[in-house]
Amino acid sequence: MSAAPIEPLQRPGPWLRGVYHLARRELLSLFVTPLAYLVGTLFLLNQGWNFALLLRVLNDPLAAPGPVMQFYFGGSFFIFWLPVIFICAALSMRLIAEERRQGTLEALLTAPLSPSQIAFGKFAGAYLFYLALWLPTGAFYLLLLGAGARPELGPVLAGYLGVLLVGASFLSVGLLASALARSQLAAAISTFVACTIAVMAGLLAEQVQAGASAELLHYTSLLVMMQELAQGVVDPRWVPLHLGITGLLLAATVVALNPRRRREHGAQLVLLALVLGHVTAFAGRHGERGDWTAGHVYTLSDRARELLQRLPATIDLSVIVPATIGGGRPNPLLAELREVLARMAAAAPNLRIRFVDPDRDHALAQAAIAEFGLGGRELADGVLLVRAGQGASLRKAHLLPGDLVTYATGADVQQSGPRVREFRGEEALLGRFLAVSDPRRTVVCATQGHGEPALDSLEPYSGLAHLRDLLRDAGLEVRTADLEAAEGLRGCDLLLVVGPQGPLPAAQVQAIERYAGEGGDLLLLSGAVILRGKSQLAAHGLEGLTARYGVRFGERVVVDPSPMAGATPFLAFTLREGWGDHPATASLVGQPISLLQVRELSLTAPATMLLQTTDQGFAESEVAGFGRGELPQQDPGPDAPGPLPVAAASELGGSRMIVIASSDFAVNAMLREDVAYDRGRDLLLNAVGWLCQREALLGLRPRPREHVKLVLQDEPLRRMTLMCVLGLPGFAVLLGLTVLWRRRR
User: For the residues 40-64, what does the mean pLDDT come to?
Assistant: First the structure.
């Protein structure tokens, strides 16, 4: 004889009406219960206090800017989890235990109401009240908007999605505890303990690194979920996971309420758990992780996906990064790496990733680092080891934290811990993957000896060491061009000429012309070199060659009123618009670029404009005035009006050329990632990528994270603090007193 189901099937209409009326009754009873208003007041007081602290952090002039949701929903137990567990335990403890204490549970079961209607109706009423408690906290977002801040809406909505999911799971735990316990206190304690254990189990996700246990812990960790949602990352497994847990616990509550329950009902619950588990696993494996950030900072670019899918060899990546730094604070680099590497692994069939915690697996991490010739410094700070091939074809590379992220700075970093201001991991990782997997070596030869900054010099304004390192990090070989040797430029894939201060000798110019005639590519950065005491600019000797490509140098200095911070007006300027339609600049549209001492260019076929000045820019013919410190004044006669080209690209006979009429933006001082706020390094990488036909270097740039700062005077900040701490809790108190007064009438 087959076992009876948990509950006989009912027609949906009458069943839903019963659930509706019971949920309405439960919701109304909560709104007239003093305990509910006490819980609501304490909850809103806690949330208001936490948000008031956040306002002061964001308003501190010395504070490092940071994303709002990682403060508010970032997984802190005392700020987020403790209040949620408290209100869920307080709301759910009376749902069934109180009915049993008053002796009304049997009356409900004979109303006639089925156990499933009681379970779902009670849950729906408590869940709606839970949502009503969170609804006023939306005023915090409006307060930030009113204060001039513009937090991203996506992570805010993702955080509230986590609130909805966690509330459903915790309330279902409380409902089952209330059905099993004989008193409200026992139900509340059981719920609090069970939910706390569920949260704290997420701490084990960082301790267990391999195997099915690690995957399961990471898959179900509530801490991981809220951290990801606070970042704006929405994993497709979270919704079915919590819906499955809620459904399973509600089914268990139905069994607990059923006066005719049998052992077979336990087997049915097990089968239901298996079905829901498979559905959740299927959704997690076949769904795509959503990126709700405004700039889609975690979404791989199309160029990155193309490169990852075409990796010619299997790449092994060992991530040796400590989980904590600075007195036990979480390492923000690890969270960023996990997200981007998870997306890369999904797109790259030939990418194998292994995480090694140097604190727990010290010997393994030390041996791996020693194999790459690294030492204790990399072991302490963290390092990524990249390898491809075997034996003689083995190629290795590594990445340090400074290659991957730019950290925010500020006084509060000492208290709140480091935060990532900009993530450069996509660009850096793909550069290393290309370096170890692509057997082709691209050689960049740079001219020296004509006043060009030295490739090995770290001098801020007379060295190109940062540019050399930038190209090497992208998998390119950089060496000095020997224009006097008999072999000439043979073996060079790209000739780099940066900032010559005078004309190249005729023999060297002829060698460069032969190189271009044989299909060689050229990147020329040559700005306005003003000769002292003269009204003319210094020549570099390549004007005839560039003219054949359609790029002609003029004798005037291009100026623009768009200011560059801390630099000479007009002579140095920052452009945000004026980018041309070209593969080398497609990813830079709308991005700033700062140029200094720009020389006049004019273009004819086959040259293509890459960047031009604003309409207010012009070509100043009075060159000698710059030496006297005079501000330029546009003369409609000799001065050419803007917009004027300042960078161009051209192709001729299989040879490619890019000319940028400025060279100072490539020196060390301008390429420092911790100081520069423009995209000069991206323009250089894109130019080299297009010239060498290395598409992997195009379209990849750092992803800035959300940064919210406030600039408020003391009085507005005090008013906002009082509104958070007293406004919302006071509203709950007044509402409770109003309901109590109306009941007594």
Answer: 78
Can you read off the two tokens belonging to residue 594?
């700062």
Q: pTM of the predicted model, to two decimals?
A: 0.69
Does residue 374 contact residue 398 with C-beta atoms inside 8 Å? yes
What is the domain partition of the chain in residue ranges? 28-294+718-744, 302-428, 440-693
pLDDT for 344 beyond 60: yes
Cα gap 56→659, rounded to integer Å: 49
Tokens 């005719």 correspond to 260
DSSP secondary structure of 99-161: HHHHT-HHHHHTTT--HHHHHHHHHHHHHHHHHHHHGGGHHHHHHHHHTT----HHHHHHHHH
Quick: pLDDT tens for 677-723. 578 888 998 899 888 876 656 555 556 666 666 667 778 888 888 88
Non-local CB neighbours of 58 within 8 Å, separated by 6+ positions: 65, 68, 149, 708, 709, 710
Judge residue 177's burial from the number of C-beta atoms within 10 Å of its C-beta, 0-12 exposed, 13-18 middle, 19 or more buried. Answer: buried
CA distance 19 to 42: 30
- CB burial of residue 579 (10 Å; 0-12, 13-18, 19+): buried
Residue 641 clears pLDDT 60, i.e. is over it? yes
List CB contacts of 275: < 8 A, sequence separation 6 or more: none
CA 203 and chain centroid, separation: 23
Residue 44 contacts residue 695 (beta carbons within 8 Å): no
HSE (side-chain half, CA atoms, 13 Å) at 590: 1
Q: Looking at domain 440-693, what is its CATH homologous superfamily?
A: Class I glutamine amidotransferase (GATase) domain (3.40.50.880)
For tokens 């409006």, the residue is 142
87, 39 contact by CB (below 8 A): yes
pLDDT digits (tens, 9 = 90+) for 143-162: 888 777 778 888 889 999 99
Spatial CA neighbour of 100 closest among 279, 264, 257: 257
- Tell me what pLDDT residue 656 has: 93
Confidence of residue 415 (pLDDT cuts 50, 70, 90): very low
Of residues 675 and 569, which shows the higher confidence score? 569
Q: What is the dihedral of CA 619, 622, 625, 631, to 10 degrees?
A: -40
CATH of 302-428, one of 1.10.1740, 1.20.1440, 3.40.30, 3.30.1490: 3.40.30
Contact 248, 174 (CB under 8 A): no
- Name the one residue in this structure whose structure tokens are 């899918």: 309
Distance CA 152, CA 377 (A): 37
The DSSP code for 228 is H
User: Mean pLDDT of all residues in the chain?
Assistant: 83
Concatenated DSSP letters of 265-330 = HHHHHHHHHHHHHHHHHHHHHHS--EE-STT-TTSPPHHHHHHHHT-SS-EEEEEE--SEETTTEE
CA nearest neighbour of 336 among 368, 379, 374, 293:
293
Tell me whether domains 302-428 and 440-693 share a fold. no
Cα-Cα-Cα-Cα torsion 344, 349, 351, 354, nearest 10 degrees, comes to 90
Write the CA distances from 688 to 351, 428, 474, integer angstroms: 26, 16, 10
